[in-house]
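agent: user wants the full assembly modeled, not chains individually. Plan: 1) parse entity lines 2) check alphabet per entity 3) run joint structure prediction 4) return tokens. Steps 1-2 passed, two entities, 490 residues total. Proceeding.
--- entities ---
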Amino acid sequence: MSAYSGELRKLTSLPSVWAAFAVGIAVPAVVGVLSAVSTSAAIANGTKPEAGPDLGYQELAFGVAGAIILGVVAASSEYFTEGESAGSGRQITTSLTAVPSRTRFLLAKVAALTTAVVLMSAIATGITLSCVQAVVGDHAHALDGAAATRVPGVVLYWVLTALLAFGITLLTRNGVVPLAVLVLNTSVVTVTFLLSKVTPLAVYFPDLAGMRMFLTEVRVPVELSPITGGVVMAVWVVLLLACGFTAFTRRDA
Amino acid sequence: MLTIDRLTKRRGSALILSDVTFQARPGRVTGFLGPNGAGKSSTLRILLGLDRPTSGTALVDGVPFERLPDPLRTVGAVLDGSGAHRARTGRAHLSWVAAAAGIPRRRVDEVLDEVDLTGAARKRVGSYSLGMGRRLGLAAALLGDPAALVLDEPVNGLDPEGIRWMRRFLRERAEAGHTVLLSSHLMGELAEVVDDVVIINGGRVVEQGTLAEVTGAHRTLEDAFFALTTGARGGAR
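--- prediction returned ---
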């Protein structure tokens, strides 16, 4: 329990974690309002009968960048070197002298990361969907009956994505590459989505599969049910975390 | 009591440590001396469970560090730099260490005062001087008021006043019955602090004993050190 509260305290006192919260909450809300405004204009001038089923949820799929930053930073901050003039120290030595059991240390980290991401995604989902609903009104599907299963889907998707980023960064011990690759894939160029044009197998990439938990319109060759999508993503996360855990417990710190 | 027993460490084909054996006893300051790259840090990292030995053991009161029920109340350690993330404040760093080890929050202010960092507690670690960073590392090591201290190059980067402060601090710690193990490549700074000396060179212990025994016929510890670590034995690395 103390290892967990130590990890929570680490997260709350790191400026990059607050930046991750700002990204995760502001990005989907702002993009959601912009698309809601244009949808509502299209409904008003008659070009669209009503808002698409994924309005608001599509934007939450972008906001997962905040969870990626959190997952990467939770691992990379341990290995961030102070710089030669400051003695080239790394936080990991302090972490493992306070909590020497590597298994306990990693479990505490995963628990603290999950807590933070649940909080972040719940706030982001609440704000984004309410904004969309407020702008589009009765034509929106953001908060209809299906929201009861889609909202937990968003939260789970964010948590699994953060854990995926964490597992990869445990292997690389440096945040730059995983952060660049994962954030670019969710925002600028969705490489996994482009690959789905080449091979139907690409629908089993963790991001495309996991999105099925809350998106209804994903233009990919193979349809997965929300549950299948979630299970596929969870399998990826378990495998990558297992690799990260094994490397971490075997290597010299 | 810290017990290092027949420690060997290979990294790839390189032999980092070979059959390193020594002890650090309560109430004494043990100086673990050797040139850069001799294997001092590797030995201390294995003692703290950070690195794994190829063979041999390193025990704290008969138990591997990883299995200590209350590690921070048993051993306080300062390795490279401050051991803190540079974006956090000094106080935030100590707060998470205390939380992770189940140590009451009030100790944070006490150790900040003890190492004279109260004034800089709310500044980011990245703005600290090397000496301040070292003192922050020491503050974290003292949070649990441990029976043993393990310090890697504790006077590196300190100004003369800081070195004086550190010497007095280490003596007081040992005289209160605690175990102090420190590594250094600077003999002159530490000769008057240490009770026992272990000299390592090229991954092997080349001499150990009380300060008087190791100094032997030489004029100073420094002379004895250079006689043991240069010339026929080939120096560092």
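agent: reporting back. Residues 102-136 of chain A form the longest helix (35 residues). Chain A has one domain: 2-250.
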